[in-house]
Specification:
Strand order of the largest sheet: 2-1-3-4-5
CATH class of the largest domain: Alpha Beta
Shape: elongated
Largest sheet: 5 strands, mixed
Oligomer: single chain
Mean pLDDT: 87
Number of helices: 6
Distance between the termini: 21 Å
Number of domains: 2
Strand content: 15-25%
CATH superfamily of the largest domain: Cytidine Deaminase, domain 2
Structural class: alpha+beta
Number of strands: 5
């Protein structure tokens, strides 16, 4: 599985805390670190520098984000949605609406099911895609068991949804099943 450190706006994710403080406060990094941790009282100057740093981060995090990265593979889909759906105790089925460059426009929860299944129908999948003028969609759901292997029902639902997508002119690019730390891609596993 491919891992992209620092992806999605976290370029310093791999840095240790001490390195971050050293980079942000080169002259007084140890004092700032101790003050922030509450290990020593912060004087007015340190407090002002810390508040300024926090405000810069707040502004950066609340700035409008650039267009999302396009999905290029099922690994990209897994990396984006694994923490969103993997831990549910029931199946959660999402339709991810995509623009013409395969960038996500919107996630639509189609169904939240029972322990070992979910109920999906093409009208619930494609209604938001038609309304939002999506160029294509990705199907994403979890398996609460942790095993991403598709069931016969998953295969049949995928077949039906691909067929419906062909009729309405909105392609289903892939169906990714997310398990416990792994995934199954219909497109990449030759079930397409």
């Amino acid at each position: 599985m491919r891992k992209n450190p620092g992806r999605d706006g976290r370029p310093l994710e791999a840095w240790e805390e001490a390195e971050l403080f050293r980079a942000a406060f080169p002259e007084d990094w140890e004092g700032m670190r101790s003050a922030v941790r509450g290990e020593e009282p912060a004087d007015a100057a340190r407090r002002a520098r810390w508040e300024a740093a926090v405000e810069i981060v707040r502004r950066a995090l609340s700035a409008p984000s650039p267009l999302p990265e396009p999905f290029r593979s099922a690994t990209d889909v897994f990396e984006r949605y694994r923490y969103l759906v993997a831990d549910y105790r029931v199946e959660v089925f999402l339709a991810v609406l995509l623009d013409v460059k395969n960038r996500p426009m919107q996630d639509h929860r189609v169904s939240t099911g029972i322990l070992n299944g979910s109920l999906i129908h093409p009208r619930e999948v494609f209604a938001p895609a038609v309304r939002e003028r999506a160029a294509s969609i990705l199907l994403v759901h979890n398996h609460p068991s942790g095993d991403p292997a598709p069931s016969p029902e998953d295969r049949e639902a995928t077949r039906r949804l691909r067929s419906a997508g062909g009729i309405v002119g909105i392609a289903v690019l892939d169906h990714v099943i997310i398990g416990d730390g792994s995934f199954y891609s219909f497109r990449e596993e030759a079930d397409w």
